[in-house]
Amino acid sequence: FGPNYDNKLQEPLVLPSRIPNLLVNGSVGIAVGMATNIPPHNLCEVVDACIEILDNPEATLEDLMAHIQGPDFPTAGLIMGRSGIRAAYATGRGHIKMRARAEIEENGSRYRIVVTEIPYMVNKQKLVESIGILLKEQRIEGISEVRDESDHRIRVVIDIKKDANPQVVLNQLYRYTQL
């Protein structure tokens, strides 16, 4: 125990736990003058890193990163580069850039883009709505229809017009939406 913020009361400095739940579950919040955004991590990787620290108290960041590859986001998505992850683990500050996983499929004589994973904390419905708004504003051209075919897995299908290049449309979606 130690003194609280105004030295009037005692508060626990360390709360007992078998694993660091904050890392496993992640946290987003704002307190008095401070903000936190800790992404969720894989339970097995975190436990392996804890065992590494118990076995080797002098473990380096590289030793721990051999066990914890990076955040484990529930909506999956692609992490673009590892430098942000390393900076976050080394200094407590870092940016993790993410991108949706999208594939271009051929459907007869036409193409379609199928999005199966989206970045963490992106609302799928708002994403589909924003694509529709961009179509109405004609900021993105070459899309004939957008459908949300998701059930228990994410599946957003974007039909491409016959004369459009699907890779160009996908690049525009990456640029103008939360993909």
DSSP summary: helix tally: 6
- Biggest sheet layout: 4 strands, antiparallel
The level of helicity is 25-40%
Unreliable stretches covering 5 or more consecutive residues: none
Q: Give the radius of gyration.
A: 22 Å
> How confident overall, as mean pLDDT?
93
What is the N-to-C succession of helices and strands?
A: EEHEEHHEHEEEHEEH
Strand-residue fraction?
15-25%
- SS-derived structural category: alpha+beta
> Strand order within the widest sheet?
7-8-10-9
Distance between the termini: 46 Å
The overall strand count is 10
- Morphology call: elongated
Defining key terms:
179 residues; four-stranded antiparallel sheet; two-stranded antiparallel ribbon; alpha+beta
Q: Helices and strands in order, then pairings?
A:
Blueprint: E1 2-3, E2 10-11, H1 21-25, E3 27-30, E4 35-38, H2 43-55, H3 61-65, E5 78-79, H4 83-91, E6 98-99, E7 101-107, E8 110-117, H5 124-136, E9 143-148, E10 156-160, H6 166-176
Antiparallel strand pairs: 1-2, 3-4, 5-6, 7-8, 8-10, 9-10
